[in-house]
Amino acid sequence: MPGTVELAGSRRPAPEGGTVGELDPRHQVVVTLYLQDPAIDAREIAGTTDLTIPHRLSRRTLARRRSGQYAHAARVIAKFAAGHGLVMRRRSLARRCVILRGTAALIGKAFGTSLHLCDDGRRQYRVRSGPLYVPRDIAPFTRAVLGLDQRPQAEHRLRSFAGAGAGPGLWPSDIARLYDIPPDRDGAGQCVGIIALGGGYLASDLAAVAAHMGRPPPVVIDQPVGDAGNAFAGGDPADQEIALDLQVLYGIAPAASIVVYFAASDTGSLVAALHQAVHDDKNRPQVVAISWGSSERTWTEGARAAAQAALGDAKDLRVSVVAASGDSLATGGLTGRGANVFFPASSPWVLGCGGTLPTLDAGAAKITAEAAWNDGFAGTGGGISDVFPIPDYQQSVPLPPSVNDGGRRRGVPDVAGAAAPTPGYRIILDGQPITRDGTSAVAPLWAALIALANAERGRPLGLLHPLLYANPALCRPITAGDNRAAGLGYDAGRPWNACTGLGVPRGGDIIAAGSAMV
Fold this sequence. Notes:
Elements: E1 4-6, E2 19-22, E3 28-35, H1 38-46, H2 59-83, E4 87-92, E5 97-103, H3 104-110, E6 116-119, E7 124-127, E8 133-135, E9 142-146, H4 172-178, E10 191-197, H5 203-213, E11 220-224, H6 237-252, E12 257-263, H7 267-278, E13 287-290, E14 294-295, H8 301-316, E15 320-324, E16 342-343, E17 351-360, E18 367-372, E19 383-384, E20 411-412, E21 415-418, E22 425-429, E23 432-436, H9 439-457, H10 465-470, E24 475-476, E25 504-505, H11 507-516
Parallel strand pairs: 10-12, 10-13, 11-12, 13-15, 15-17, 17-21
Antiparallel strand pairs: 1-8, 2-6, 3-5, 3-9, 4-5, 6-7, 14-16, 17-18, 19-20, 22-23, 24-25
Helix pairs in contact: 1-8, 5-6, 6-9, 7-8, 9-11
């Protein structure tokens, strides 16, 4: 296209599976342009700079700073939009984004692409392939254009929930006791955010769990991202995910409020949910839990950079972000494509959470042995990032070489917790007790623990990595097991490993150490 350039990091492959057909050119499309300033934002894309926690920024201070830094970029893009007949639906310089709306025909022409409709037999969604093109004058200010392609992120979700736990399971509060997380703490005054890609929950299920615990039901706030919302579908996998997240959080930090950011199951919506949670000036979550993700290979560079921008803001605002490392062992579920770690768990600004198989005593009150979770079909994700270099806090860790290319880069996960089907987490779904498992239970477990530590400390810890890596005894190392699949993977062992990271929490010690931090 004359006068345009390819937008870096925008290439998407053609959709795999399904039938691709024409999209009505009058179809309304909403896209988000994420702004950048190369002189300011390079650190956020790679996460390579000093990760020492800075003086905490307020959201107001950050928004005011952004208004000055990105006003010119927003004006240039507004002129571009008007010239292509697009409507500026919203502008948020705090989040460094501009939201545009237009017909499929106008949007496609503006960005040099064609939009199509894909039908995979279960649903229909909008797709594109190849690169995007933008005018030369806005290219330096455009980090990513998201929302054009809506292929489901859920296809790469962290767990298929094809099976249930082997027994009745343990309530989340009982699993917390196995890790010395004090039962007399309740997280009062704290707020934890959950990123939910599809699905919904029933208030009656939470009331049933509360009755079991003898406590008032949790305070849960629904926050839509775009047009998404609480859409319980009778207990499908997305519903199970939300039930697990909510009930693990509530079981460990019952007095903390919980905000659920409901988003659609595509990459652009996940990125938008991250930005919304981090910059939520009303609810102000101090911790955000993500039980979703996919292999780094499935993310475009632009989408990953846009997510990194939100995660960098989280660090500056002292919002702790935790994410599950996945349940597809070292390959990340991509057969024949080497080893793969999951993003966002691989971000240097996210606490990646792996999974273990604990063995309990006869009374299920104590862990007698614990290994990396690998049942041959599913197990803890982990390995060496193909994207991010070694962050500061891992510089002294003897990271193994990548089984892909021998390189040493960011190691995933950072920590771990019980994730195997045995004993499994007992939750209530649609009025019935069920047992669920996976690293998607470990992320809310650690989120709840951080909320307890924040409550004890009286202010948020933010990025927890420097504390944990400087004090590895705060975790109990897991020295047995591996996450090998198809001949690829890593072994557990000391003092850090690419299956379970630093290990499982010594809950009381972490709360005490966090409280003692200056």
